[in-house]
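Chain X:
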Amino acid sequence: MTSPDQAPRWLITGGTGFLGSHIARRLIDENIHPVLFDIVPLPPDDADIADRVTYIHGDVQDRQAIRRALQGVEIVIHAAAALPIQVSKRKIYATNVRGTRYVLHEASKANIRRLVFISSTAVYGVPKTHPIDERSPLHPLGHYGASKVIGEELCRQYQERGLQINIIRPKTFLGTGRLGVFEILFEWIAEGRRIPLLGNGQNHYQLLEVTDLVDAILRAATNPNVVNQTLNVGADRFQTLEQDMQALFDHAGSGSRLWHLPARPGELALRLLEQLRLSPLAAWHYGTMWRDSYVEVHKAKQLLGWQPRYSNAEALIRAWDWYIQNRGRYDTGVTHRVAWQKGALAILRRIS
């Protein structure tokens, strides 16, 4: 095994978050030393890897901090982002646009070998034609999606300056360690409540297991023949939303069932609650949950030799099993690794 002093160093922005922690663990397995750059300290759950990573406290809006973090680094995984639930446009753009510009600029100056930018399929918005491929028009939904479109354009500008950048557009991903919106869903299932859903549940909504995403990221970071590419990443096995949810209900042994609500009135109501800051759900959640939303992943398979291991149902079940083992250990917050404030959904829960 390579000693920590000899191992190659990779920088992960947003390194202590849900995705960052999974990337870090995979890098350790690959004898690569993770440098975790984040404004959030390494959480207690990661105590087992604390002596095998370098943690640097810093903000992607701080150029000097980025410069320090890049010392001795070969590869950068830029995963830091403000989430859709942080409804302030200013905050989202400050982190996702200005922060991305600073990371790209400093990486270029430091002669970083390659950078992988974690974008989102939110850049596509709600297209009428599926599956969505990488050439589909970009009509982002909400400030988060729009900020990712700008982030991608910044990446293309730095590609032209000689920085090798691969862009990953993942579907909604979940797995061990993620709470956020899934904690709300799992809590209701654990209580055997009806699960409110806009629409009839016959739409196809693609998900992604986080370890499948991590595998795609590592391949995008290391494949010498895949340079300056944009790649969709998602599960390649999924059924209707109703069928995938029923598989989860059956595994959980829950009496939960879907509670179908009128789609358009429900979407309008959730939009109003979001604007009043009374709901944790953002436009990306309520604008897509009742529509088809799935991407073509052939390009990632072909170029990266990547193959997702988990179906939608299997990803949900793996995340559920982790939730049950760790239920009640987390406080509310605004990241994927802590539970979210329920807002007006707490009222809906009482009548479900």
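Chain Y:
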Amino acid sequence: MRSGIRTWVCGAGVALAMVAAGAPVAGATPADTPVRPGMIDIADLPPDSLTWMGGASDQPGGSLMPTCLWEWGSDVPEENIWSADFFTSETAAAVERVWVLPTEAEAVALAESLRQAYAGCADRLRAAYPGDVVTGYDHGSVAVEEGATVGGVKRTRTSPWSSYNNYLFGVGRDGSTVVIVDWESNWTQPDVPAFKETVKAAVNKLY
């Protein structure tokens, strides 16, 4: 993969500690264990010139770090997270993260916190890379369940050579469940309408 995607992969790391409260009866499901939400698959992703690979994982935090959240996360719950990671051989990568919260109020707060973190992405990139040209985008909302929003960032490097990264990210909620979908490419121009359909599918598939 190209440098942008390699950096994203290397930024992985949300840990989850799960402690068993006791030995459950064989075949039984603890009453306080959330039902795994539905998640997107390759067919839901924006089209790409190369073949998408990957899918849902048993790793709570996944292997890819969501764009613009590498320096943020102290308020992200570390329990009841589900993940899916996708990538092509060179052109693009995508992640999905789902949090199941105890209450709807907590889900509302988390969704807003995630939106604010993404909204500040362009400013953080400009501060970290003052020689680069960074543009943030508000791509509006998606009409689905309790709502979803989509944004994006384009970062153009001016040294040591000219290159760019495009990012799209969506945050959605269904009741007490919050989902983010994140797409990144240093080859492909963002297909915003297709990505909005991906975000819509992600929210609709939760339950």
